[in-house]
Known about the structure:
By secondary structure, the protein is mainly α. It has a single domain (20-90), classed as 2-Layer Sandwich (Herpes Virus-1), CATH 3.30.40.10.
Amino acid sequence: MSVHGPIAGAQRGIMASLSEDDFSCPVCQEIFKNPVVLSCSHSFCKGCLQQFWRTKKTQECPVCRRRSSRDDPPVSLVIGSLRLCLFYGRYGRLN
Length: 95
Ligand SMILES: [Zn+2]
Ligand SMILES: [Zn+2]
């Protein structure tokens, strides 16, 4: 089984063109590994999130404590959306 798919390749390409600060996991402070995004739009490494959930015995966001109804968070394919969130967070909303 290979870990090198089109998705992994795309993520590597996107990450290479952006600064590390924009893509660090709030749990481990490292660049996301297998980034997943929760319904509250916070992103984490899949491994970090699952470990956090195991430890807490509840499926809540490590940042905002919002409960997730899913036990298998969707993989963040469009990691660029995270950058958009940061952009709007800094400069305010469009409307
Ligand atoms: Zn992490
Ligand atoms: Zn959250």
